[in-house]
Design goal:
Number of strands: 11
Largest sheet: 6 strands, parallel
Structural class: alpha/beta
Protein name: Thiamine pyrophosphate enzyme TPP-binding domain-containing protein
Organism: marine metagenome
Family: Belongs to the TPP enzyme family.
Domain Thiamine pyrophosphate enzyme central: 2-114
CATH superfamily of the largest domain: Thiamin diphosphate (ThDP)-binding fold, Pyr/PP domains
Strand order of the largest sheet: 7-6-8-9-11-10
Radius of gyration: 21 Å
Number of helices: 12
Strand content: 15-25%
GO biological process, one term: isoleucine biosynthetic process
């Protein structure tokens, strides 16, 4: 969809058949997130997440321009036995999953396929989903909005710890739809997926493979490709440290309104979480020393900000966007805080 620039056709197609839309893993900007038919993104935690309920309950899954990867199929549980599947992609060789009698694979351009199917539906007696399903769809959308709208000023958190939901409350209220968002691999990204809304195509950039060190170089590339729009990189301390030397590149190119937000918890968070789950008390090689990324940014000729409270963050973000040079915001994160999806599993 994104590669073919057919987001507008996807919107028209979804409105024609009046069905909910979920975006595939790391393709969060393929459909406007503020649309009434949008029900969220598919990601690493979707398998155990109630926001994926519409996909699990679907009679028919229409997969447009996706290879049906592990996360987009809820650990390959979709299509489930009895679920019908229509998969549309450029090449039949890219068809994923297991084939069955009720699975139809169409090797075609996604945009052209949606036009042809739409014409056929208009010529048929198709009247859309039943009233019961339409009511269910409206309820699903209300739940999606309620669970993905960040709140500020929460209480009952770990004493002295920064509330990451509150951080995203500020992010979504400060950044606009034109910002290029790049995302590294790591647990911090769950907060971005849950709370940020992409309403324009080609505004999200992230690896599907979980590669670390991606965010800063990608933000530099996005800024060069879209010079009129701010670029904001999201990274953990482990991933950012892998490519932080590219700050020199950003400074040398005099890139303004380029900001890196680093969630600094002094460890490889995702790997540490997996080790704690599978081998309690036996974490190996996941702890990191304390790095002051604000000082590193200043040393490279960029602007650095150290954030130690929720109150400091919106001031730092607004200042970083207007700094006139690349900027880094180092946020001190506690590893004792709950995860981004812990309250809605």
């Amino acid at each position: 969809v994104l590669r073919s620039n057919v987001t507008d056709r996807l919107v028209e197609f979804a409105e024609l058949i009046n069905v909910p839309v979920l975006t595939a893993w790391r393709r969060f900007d393929a459909f406007p997130n503020n649309h009434s038919l949008y029900l969220g993104a598919l990601h690493v935690s979707s398998y155990s997440n109630i926001l994926a309920e519409p996909l699990k309950k679907a009679d028919l899954v229409i997969a447009i321009g996706t290879r049906l990867d592990e996360f987009s199929t809820l650990n390959y549980s979709v299509p489930a036995p009895g679920q019908k599947l229509i998969q549309i992609d450029h090449s039949a060789a890219d068809a994923g999953g297991k084939r069955a009698e009720d699975h139809l694979y169409i090797a075609a351009d996604a945009g052209e396929a949606m036009i042809k199917i739409g014409e056929a539906l208009k010529a048929s007696k198709y009247s859309g989903p039943s009233k019961t399903r339409q009511t269910e769809l409206a309820d699903w959308h209300k739940r999606y909005k309620r669970l993905t709208t960040p709140r500020s000023g929460r209480t009952g958190l770990v004493e002295g710890a920064i509330d990451l939901e509150g951080i995203y409350y500020d992010i979504v209220n400060i950044l606009d739809d034109d910002v290029s968002i790049t995302c590294d691999a790591g647990d911090f990204g769950g907060w971005l997926v849950r709370y940020y809304k992409w309403n324009k195509p080609h505004t999200f950039f992230g690896p599907t493979s979980g590669a670390m060190g991606y965010a800063l170089p990608a933000a530099i590339s996005a800024k060069l490709a879209r010079p009129g729009s701010p670029a904001v990189a999201f990274a953990g301390d482990g991933g950012f440290a892998m490519t932080m030397s590219e700050l020199e590149t950003a400074v040398r190119y005099k890139l303004e309104r380029l900001v890196a937000i680093v969630f600094n918890n002094n460890c490889y968070g995702t790997i540490s979480r997996h080790q704690k789950r599978e081998f309690p008390g036996r974490n190996v090689g996941t702890n990191l020393g304390k790095i002051n990324f604000a000082d590193i940014a200043n040393a490279a000729g960029a602007r650095g900000y150290a954030v130690n409270s929720n109150e400091e963050f919106p001031i730092a973000l607004n200042s970083a966007l207007d700094a006139g040079c690349p900027a880094v915001i180092d946020i001190e994160v506690s590893d004792k805080n709950p995860g981004p999806w812990d309250d809605i599993k």
